[in-house]
Amino acid sequence: MIINKALFLTSNNRIDKLPKDNIPEYAFIGRSNVGKSSLINMLTRRRGLAKTSSTPGKTISINHFIVNDEWYLVDLPGYGYAKRSKKQREEWQMMLAKYISRRRNLVCTFVLIDSRIEPQDSDLGFMEWLGENQVPFAIVFTKTDKLKKTEIEKNIEAYKKRLLEDWEDLPALFITSSETGLGRDEVLNFIEEQNRELEEYKRTHGL
Ligand code: GTP
Ligand code: MG
Predict the structure, then answer these.
(1) Which of 29, 56, 87, 93 suits 36 as a labelling partner, its CA being 20 to 30 A distant?
(2) How far apart are CA 173 and CA 43, in angstroms?
(3) 55 CB less than 6 Å from ligand 1?
(4) Hey, whose CA ends up nearest to atom 23 of ligand 1?
(5) What's the sign of the alpha-carbon dihedral 36, 45, 106, 165?
(6) Is the per-residue pLDDT at 9 higher than 80?
(7) What is the 3-state secondary structure (H, E, C) of the chain?
(8) Given the CA of residue 30, which atom of ligand 1 is nearest to it?
């Protein structure tokens, strides 16, 4: 997919204020610092479009970006950021849960996983919750530039094995680096394909 246009649209911490839900939406979620905002910049090839930081807890609201005037990319706050108060974490958790479970145009949620670390309960638990709420998701392994090729393969194989303890099938998996652009085409092609399927569905159902 060629990206001609990518613009920041809105930043919200209330789900009743989100932009109109009339175009396909793709959200990025994962633990703080995993690389969600960086991935948005890498995919759109716009440095600084989404704000990044080496300190966890940078993104603190639901940020919508509009791509090619056709679909939304959404940057979300990370989960499990220990430095916030328990109350604040619970409020965010609630807002994220509401957003993900109620947003009608959310086509797919990309769960970002740091490729360097072993499977974490917080991520596995989050995916389980997505499954229970019938929210389609894909997995994006991040920061692979920090590993040797053999290490990437080993870690991803281990992750797949762990997932298959809980799931019958594996979701779509992407191996990425926001430093090198690895995986960019694969993620964008996946989104393009989903957009196309949605259009086809709407057309055949007269929507
Ligand atoms: P929060 O908004 O705090 O939840 O974090 P985030 O998931 O949006 O992470 P962000 O994109 O801000 O990146 C966190 C740090 O990781 C930054 O210092 C990035 O430069 C770095 N980073 C992100 N992706 C990559 C990557 O693919 N490779 C490398 N080497 N560093 C990365
Ligand atoms: Mg962020």
Answers:
(1) 87
(2) 16
(3) no
(4) 35
(5) negative
(6) yes
(7) CCCCCEEEEEEECCHHHCCCCCCCEEEEEEECCCCHHHHHHHHHCCCCCCCCCCCCCCCCCEEEEEECCCEEEEECCCECCCCCCHHHHHHHHHHHHHHHHHCCCEEEEEEEEECCCCCCHHHHHHHHHHHHCCCCEEEEEECHHHCCHHHHHHHHHHHHHHHHHHCCCCCCEEECCCCCCCCHHHHHHHHHHHHHHHHHHHHHCCC
(8) 7
Question: Which residue CA neighbors atom 17 of ligand 1 most closely?
Answer: 54
Report pLDDT for 35. Answer: 96
Task: Name the token pair of 185.
Answer: 């085409």
6-13+21-204 belongs to CATH 3.40.1120.10: no
Q: What is the pLDDT of residue 50?
A: 93
Domain spans, the chain: 6-13+21-204
Phi/psi zone of residue 12: left (φ > 0), alpha (ψ -120 to 50 degrees), beta?
beta
Q: How far is the CA of 91 from the centre of ligand 2 (A)?
A: 18
pLDDT, one tens digit per residue, over 63-107 is 999 999 999 999 998 887 667 788 888 888 888 999 999 999 999
